[in-house]
């Protein structure tokens, strides 16, 4: 897309998500960065945590184009509802090369911006008029706005119930964040959950002596759906650890923000 042809979108993208890059460039750049650390499509498994919404699928496809078949952590709003069991399975599916495993995780909340710069609006083929993204977050916000939030666990709406329970403590009582702020809260929660799950697994494997030397990277951010099917990524500061053994994964070594 030509940003000059969509000034409303371009202005909103820069105002709310300064530093966002084209999705395909983001995946290519992160892969190039990791190749310098010994990660490749033949020795690494990619794990992808995205919303189940079909409009997120291009990012999953871009990941698989670069890294090969990926392990899916799909959950409403991108929340990592697969938990410890899912991440442990993905890690154990990682190839072993020279006695090491390597895995990279792409974890994204998502939001849409239309041509005029309206937040949360996306065009879907075959559907007249715009629809919402992220629909799960919009539904949660609508409940907050109306004062009708239902917080009891619903076995027939498991992921939405878990989303509410995870995000509600992050919101100041009586406040209703706008969709941009709610999406940023969501990706912060996703990133924190991933790191806590990894820490927990590391501790468990340390105690049971099941740890294997491993290199890992997490790239968290927000996938942004723009006009004409163009997707962007607004990344959090990515973290990488190499030379580790899943015994002390603090992901403390900063690598440059992808531009």
Overview of the molecule:
The chain has 259 residues and is an alpha/beta fold. The chain has one domain (3-229). It contains 7 helices and 11 strands. The strands form 2 sheets. Strands 1, 2, 3, 4, 5, 8, 9, 10 and 11 form a 9-stranded mixed beta sheet that branches. Strands 6-7 form a two-stranded antiparallel sheet. A hairpin with an 8-residue loop joins strand 6 and strand 7 (131-132). The protein is globular and about 50 Å long. The model is unreliable at 246-259 (pLDDT under 50).
Spans of 5+ residues with little confidence (pLDDT < 50)? 246-259
* Rg of Cα set: 19 Å
Derived structural class: alpha/beta
Averaging pLDDT over every residue, what do you get? 85
Order of helices and strands: HEHEHEHEEEEHHHEEEE
Indicate how many domains the architecture comprises.
1
The major beta sheet can be summarized as:
9 strands, mixed
Assign a percent range to the helix content.
25-40%
Cα-to-Cα separation, first versus last residue: 18 Å
Count of helical regions: 7
Molecular shape: globular
> Strand portion, in percent?
15-25%
How many E-type strands?
11
């Amino acid at each position: 897309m030509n940003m000059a042809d969509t000034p409303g979108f371009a202005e909103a993208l820069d105002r709310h998500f300064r530093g966002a890059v084209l999705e395909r460039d983001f995946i290519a750049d992160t892969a190039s960065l990791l190749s310098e650390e010994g990660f490749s499509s033949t020795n690494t498994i990619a794990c992808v945590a995205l919303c189940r919404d079909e409009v997120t699928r291009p990012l999953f496809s871009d990941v698989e184009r670069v890294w090969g078949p990926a392990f899916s952590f799909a959950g409403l709003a991108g929340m990592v509802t697969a938990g410890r069991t899912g991440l442990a399975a993905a890690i154990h599916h990682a190839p072993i090369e020279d006695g090491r495993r390597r895995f990279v995780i792409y974890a994204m909340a998502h939001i849409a911006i239309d041509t005029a710069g309206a937040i949360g609006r996306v065009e879907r083929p075959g559907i007249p008029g715009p629809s919402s993204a992220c629909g799960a977050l919009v539904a949660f916000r609508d409940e907050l706005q109306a004062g009708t939030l239902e917080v009891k666990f619903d076995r027939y709406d498991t992921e939405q119930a878990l989303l509410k329970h995870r995000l509600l403590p992050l919101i100041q009582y009586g406040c209703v964040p706008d969709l941009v702020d709610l999406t940023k809260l969501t990706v912060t929660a996703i990133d924190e959950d991933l790191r806590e799950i990894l820490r927990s697994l590391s501790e468990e494997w340390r105690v049971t002596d099941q740890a294997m030397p491993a290199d890992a990277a997490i790239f968290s951010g927000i996938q942004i759906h723009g006009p004409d099917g163009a997707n962007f990524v607004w990344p959090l500061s990515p973290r990488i650890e190499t030379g580790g053994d899943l015994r002390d994964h603090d992901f403390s070594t900063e690598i440059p923000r992808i531009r």
